[in-house]
Input
Amino acid sequence: MKKKEKAKRPNIAQYLKRYRVWIFLYALLYVIASVGDVFFTILLAKSVELITLASYKKAMINIAFVIGINIVQRFCWYFCSYIYNKKANKIMSELNLDLAKQAFKLNSKTFNDHDTGTFVQRIVDDPARIVDGLATVIDVIMNMATTIVMFIYIATLNIYVSIAFVGIVVIAFIIEYYRVKLRRKHRGIVRKKNDKVNSLTTEIVRSEKDIKSLGLENKLSEVSKENYEDYRKARYKLDMTGTNYGTARNAIIGLGTLLTLVLGIYLRQLGLITLATYMIIYSNRGSVWDLVWNIGQLTNLIVDIRVSHDRMFSLYDENEFVTEKFGDKTIENVVGEIEFKAVSYTFREYEYKRKRKPAKHGREGKIDYSVPPEKKLVSENKIFNDLSFKITPNTTVAFVGKSGSGKSTILNLMSKMYVVDDGEVLIDGMNINEFNKETLRKTISLVNQFPYIFDMTIKENLLLAKGDATDEEVQEAIAKASLEEFVESLPKGVDTKVGESGIKLSGGQKQRLAIARALLRNSPIIIFDESTSSLDNFAQEEVKKSIDGLKGKSTIVIVAHRLSTIKNVDKIFFLENGEIVDSGTFDELFDKNKSFKSMFLAENI
Output
């Protein structure tokens, strides 16, 4: 089992391995260009000294070498950029795609348990951070190596100057260490304050009409002022920490560098160093700052890469991100009989808490993404216990009941968005857990209360359901969904773009387009989950007409919020507290069930 789990969870090394030749070439070119910096500085300094000695011919030869080195460097930098732009984007694309595919495997309950940002961060943001971070690590390491080589070279020329450089680096690094430490602490506080401000601002924007109608402007202005002021103070503390320690660090480096140059002049007067050596010292006066900054940058990069890596591949952690499970059975001609046999289901809500690494220096430890989070049960609600019913093929049935009676849960179990705790959900007498993914998805089409319409044309939205559909099939689906008149009224017809989330369509038009999409799949079972509850009476009637046109051609299952929309169904199951307390036609339930009759009358008062 352990081997299986390990093989299932990938790591960044597997992706980098595919491009190891290009990565090696990238690193090699970077090394050549970085080594060129060292020779560039030495030869340029030597040329200046030769000019002062009136050795112009040798100086010209040195300059020619400097020009040659510069040309080689430009060549190396160009091809490094070319390799990075081409291959880094390829690696990011592969990571994005594989993580998105993994997200597709997760069950609906997993998506319910996590917010959208969790997936966007892991699928989009983290791969970019890792790939960019790794390239920056190479850059930082090469810069550090170049600086260290120069320090070693200077040490061979004069040990006193080298000791001065090292002393400045040590003092500056100690200051930088405390700057980074305090900045992390204050940055955590700023993020919390920022999250609060963002949340409040979002609520204000979304509830603008309610705020105005209730006269809450002044009250919310006071609340906003308090939150913005807290955020400002936290941000000021963060910025001043950077300013104070950064100023001290830069002052030490600046003063130390100037004193080193003074030392160089003194040593030159004593004849202990040549003019070329002094020029090298002068040219590298900024290297101390670079080295200190690069050491801190490298530490931060490694931490960020590790966090992004572990967080990104945690999508493969079955403990937190539970995937759908399918069988291997295929059924070619599904009739559409549905049966729940002694089904039990409890809705459970979990909280996932990740451990932190041991605290250091009185500071809270970082979240450890390398180990699975602790899964804690927060609440549970028993929805069904021993629920049984059967739906005859090619009939239209509806489930009705008060909110919380379990209507939508039945549809989620029927389509295997949720998995039963006990009992069986059968289609044509076979447990749906035995179906392979393709069979189950082809068998059932689901039209939600708020169907997602993509930012494409009407035709492209329909072809998502069946890529090889002919124009005749598309037009037939549009006609059956009572969308034909609307489409014909559009200048571009089926080639009209509907905007993001179908923003250019009304609620009823979205529903009918979703129905047409389901019809194009020609599934033997079609499920409608509260499909008319948010529509006005006219739109509701159009959608109802579309659903009525399907009667007898597929098994149709409807969860109804408005009882008036299901008068013509073959059978109604009436639920109370997770139990089917009655069933029959609309007229039968109206006559014999007081609760059903009361619900209908209350709706039509």
The first strand starts at residue 338 and ends at 353. Residues 338-603 form a domain with the Rossmann fold fold (CATH 3.40.50.300).
